[in-house]
Design goal:
Elements: H1 18-24, H2 31-46, E1 54-55, H3 56-60, H4 63-69, H5 72-85, E2 88-95, E3 98-105, H6 108-119, H7 142-149, H8 155-167, H9 170-182, H10 188-201, H11 213-220
Antiparallel strand pairs: 1-3, 2-3
Helix pairs in contact: 2-5, 7-9, 9-10
Length: 230
């Protein structure tokens, strides 16, 4: 066994609900289920946007998880047990003609989200899924992106950025900043307009970085046109 070197000073901590330790941990007697449950609690806590979910394909592609549980068979066993125990929700769907499994936490909010997905109120084809989860290293947060590309933060803007970070996936935020910088539109309202358009229309409508006249006009002549610098 290789000894652990210890937690670094800047180590981040994920959110594990207290009820896990008081009610679930004493019941779980399967190692694969324990590892899968802890991993999902951490990943879904870190996820942005609504609803917070992860696909079965994402989990199989997660090298840290696969090494930890010991392969796809153990992963499937752990997931099945966690679903039966009621810790996570599994939803079998079809996206772009392919079967896909969505996993959500068994919370009131996610139970409502599952119902909306099943009824078609939420279209999984427009959801920002498939974003790879990085267990190692840190991606720049929205505050760092703002200060590096726009300027000093004000308290009002900081609150708006905090809300946006909860609402949108990190990859969308990064791409929206790239889009704005590439067009020399270093303005939060412009970036926010991009994110809102992707949320309502789907991110595939106009790839970031292309900067076509049609795309620019959507921002310049749209709802936020009065705040976009030309």
């Amino acid at each position: 066994m290789r000894a652990f070197a210890g937690f670094p000073e800047d180590a981040r901590f994920g959110g594990i609900p207290r009820v896990f330790f008081s009610q679930l941990l004493p019941q779980i007697d399967d190692l694969a289920e324990l590892k899968v449950t802890i991993h999902l609690l951490y990943i879904l806590y870190e996820r942005k946007g609504y609803p917070r979910y992860i696909t079965g394909r994402d989990l199989v592609a997660d090298r840290a998880l696969m090494r930890g549980v010991g392969g796809e068979s153990a992963l499937r066993s752990g997931l099945d047990r966690a679903v039966r125990r009621g810790v996570i929700l599994r939803l079998a769907m079809e996206s772009e003609g392919r079967p896909v499994e969505l996993y959500l936490l068994n919370t009131q909010s996610d139970r409502e989200a599952r119902s909306k997905i099943e009824s078609g109120e939420i279209d999984i084809g427009l959801l920002p899924g498939g974003e790879p989860f990085n267990m190692n290293g840190e991606r720049p947060n929205i505050f760092a992106l703002y200060e590096e590309n726009i300027g000093m933060l004000s308290p009002m803007i900081a609150e708006e950025l905090k809300d946006a970070e909860k609402r949108y996936p990190q990859s969308w935020i990064e791409d929206a900043f790239k889009e704005a910088v590439s067009l020399n539109k270093r303005n939060w309202r412009y970036i926010e307009a991009i994110l809102k358009r992707w949320e309502s229309e789907g991110k595939g409508h106009g790839e970031p970085g292309r900067g076509s006249k049609t795309d620019r006009d959507k921002y310049i002549k749209g709802k936020y046109g009065h705040v976009v610098k030309r």
